[in-house]
Design a protein that fits this description.
Cysteine desulfurase; 2 domains; pyridoxal phosphate; alpha/beta; lyase activity; four-stranded antiparallel beta sheet; Aspartate Aminotransferase, domain 1; lyase; PyrdxlP-dep_Trfase_major; Aspartate Aminotransferase, domain 2; 435 residues; binds pyridoxal-5'-phosphate
C-alpha cells in the first residue's frame, strides 16, 4: 500500500472561495514597489489570516499569564489555552496530545532529538532507551535533498557519538535513488531522517518505502514535515514514523512555535535537551527529577500566545480542508512547472514525471544570478526566494550554486502564477538569455 497522497482530482478551490480566503489576509491586498503584491514565498514563511492575528491579540488582551504555575485564574486560563492548542495540533496530524512537544521551530525540534540522543546514556535502561543510544559502528542516514536543518544536527550527532553519516543520493530528475536503499539503510542504521517534501523541488518523497526499510532493520525514522504539514493532509500514525517536526510559521501560524512529534514510548525514554524551570518534579542541590513528556522537553517560560495562534491557524486550514488545499496547490504546481519549462533558457530543477507535488518549483535562468531574477521580479511586486534555500548539497548535485524558488499556498491564484511566469519571461528578454 502506498502512503504517498494519490494524484486524485478533487474539487479545486473555486475562484469565489479563494477570493474569500484572500480577504482574510490583510497583507495580500498591499502594494509593493507600486504593484499589487504577488506573494510566492510561502515555502519560506506563510502569510497570516486575521483569525490567527486576532487569536494572538486576544490571548494577550484577555488570558495572558505564564502556564503551569501559579494558582490564579489567568494562569489557569492560559494553561487551558496552551493545552487546548496542543490537542488541536495533535488531532491535525492524527496523534496523541502527550506526543506533541512545543519547540521554537522545526530546526529546534531536530536539534532536540539529535542532542537528546547523544545524552541517551543518561536515559532509562529499557529497550526504548537502548534504541536511542548511538556509538561507533552505528550509522545515521539522511538524503541528499535535505534542508540544512535536517542535515547538520545529524552531522553533529555523528561527530559526538562516533557514528557514521550516510545519505541516499538523488537522480538528475531530483527523485531519490532507491536502487541501493537496502545497502544504505542496513543493520547498522540507527536513524533514517528525511524530508517528506523537498523545499527545493516540491516533490513528495515515498515515505512508505523509506519507513518500511527502516522498520526492517530496526532504525528510528525522523520525518521533516516542514513542507508537508502546511500543504497536505498529514496522518503521522498512518505514516508510521517515530519522530516528525514542522514549523508553525509555514502553516499560517506565527513565528516562534514549532512542533515535535515523538512516539510515546520514545519520548518517555528520551532524556531532556534543555533543562531548568518547568520541566522538573523535585530538585536538590545535587540533582533533579524530571517530569514526563511532553513537559520534560519544555523548559523555561513557554510560548503561549504563539501556540494559541497556531491552533487558530490549524482550525483555519482544517475548515478549508487539507485535501482541497493539496489539490489546489498540485494544480498551481503543475502550472508553474509547465509554464517555466516553456520559457527558453529556464531550467526547472529536478522534476520527476508523475510525482505528486506541492505548489513549489525552483529554477535556474541561464547566465543570470538568482539574486538578479529576484530583484527584477520584486520591482513588479512579485516576492520569490533566491539562493540555495538552505540546501547546498542538493544544488551542488544538480549543478547550480543557487536557484529562484516560487512557492504557492491556499491563497495563491492562477492569475498570480501567470503574472509570475510573464515576469520570468521578461527576465530572459531583459538579460538577453537564449535557449
Ligand atoms: N526543513 C525544511 C524542508 C524547510 O523547508 C525548513 C524551512 O525552510 C526547515 C526544515 C527549517 O524550518 P525552520 O527554519 O522554521 O526551523
Amino acid at each position: 500500500m502506498t502512503l504517498i497522497p494519490p494524484v486524485t482530482r478533487l474539487d479545486a478551490l473555486s475562484d469565489v472561495e479563494i477570493r474569500g480566503i484572500r480577504a482574510d489576509f490583510p497583507i495580500l491586498s498591499t502594494e509593493v514597489n507600486g504593484a499589487s503584491l504577488v506573494y510566492l514565498d510561502s515555502g519560506a514563511t506563510s502569510q497570516k489570516p486575521v483569525q490567527v492575528l486576532d487569536a494572538e491579540r486576544s490571548f494577550y488582551e484577555r488570558d495572558n499569564a505564564a502556564v503551569h504555575r501559579g494558582a490564579h485564574t489567568l494562569a489557569a486560563l492560559a494553561t487551558e489555552s496552551f493545552e487546548d492548542a496542543r490537542s488541536t495540533v495533535a488531532r491535525f496530524v492524527g496523534v496523541r496530545e502527550d506526543e506533541i512537544v512545543w519547540t521554537s521551530n522545526a530546526t529546534e525540534g531536530i536539534n532536540l532529538i539529535a542532542y537528546a540522543m547523544s545524552n541517551a546514556s543518561l536515559g532509562r535502561g529499557d529497550e526504548a532507551s537502548a534504541s536511542l543510544r548511538l556509538g561507533e559502528g552505528d550509522e545515521i542516514v539522511v538524503t541528499e535533498m535535505e534542508h540544512h536543518a535536517n542535515l547538520i544536527p545529524w552531522q553533529e550527532l555523528a561527530a559526538r557519538t562516533g557514528a557514521t553519516l550516510r545519505y541516499i543520493p538523488v537522480h538528475d530528475d531530483g527523485s531519490l535513488v532507491l536502487d541501493d536503499l537496502d545497502e544504505i539503510v542496513n543493520e547498522r542504521t540507527r536513524v533514517l531522517a528525511f524530508t517528506h517534501v523537498s523545499n527545493v523541488l516540491g516533490i513528495v518523497n515515498p515515505v512508505d518505502v523509506l519507513v518500511a526499510r527502516a522498520r526492517q532493520v530496526g532504525a528510528l525514522t525522523v520525518l521533516d514535515a516542514c513542507q508537508s504539514a502546511p500543504h497536505l493532509a498529514l496522518d503521522l500514525v498512518a505514516l508510521d514514523v517515530d519522530f516528525a517536526v514542522f514549523s508553525g510559521h509555514k502553516m499560517l501560524g506565527p513565528t516562534g512555535v514549532g512542533v515535535l512529534y515523538g512516539r510515546g514510548a520514545l519520548l518517555a525514554a528520551l532524556p531532556p535537551f534543555l533543562t531548568g524551570g518547568s520541566m522538573i518534579t523535585t530538585v536538590t542541590m545535587e540533582k533533579a527529577e524530571y517530569l514526563e513528556a511532553p513537559q520534560r522537553f519544555e523548559a523555561g517560560t513557554q510560548r503561549v500566545s504563539q501556540t494559541v495562534a497556531l491552533a487558530a491557524a490549524v482550525r483555519y486550514l482544517s475548515a478549508v480542508g487539507m485535501d482541497r488545499i493539496a489539490e489546489h496547490e498540485a494544480r498551481l504546481g503543475e502550472r508553474l512547472v509547465a509554464g517555466l519549462a516553456e520559457i527558453p533558457g529556464v531550467r526547472v530543477l529536478g522534476q520527476p514525471a508523475g510525482t505528486h507535488r506541492v505548489g513549489l518549483a525552483s529554477f535556474d535562468v541561464a547566465g543570470v544570478h538568482s539574486h538578479d531574477v529576484g530583484q527584477f521580479l520584486d520591482d513588479r511586486g512579485i516576492a520569490v526566494r533566491v539562493g540555495h534555500h538552505c540546501a547546498q548539497p542538493l544544488h551542488r548535485r544538480l549543478g547550480v550554486t543557487a536557484s529562484t524558488r516560487a512557492s504557492a499556498y491556499l491563497y495563491t491564484t492562477e492569475n498570480e502564477v501567470d503574472e509570475f511566469l510573464a515576469g520570468v519571461a521578461d527576465v530572459t528578454t531583459f538579460f538577453g538569455v537564449s535557449a
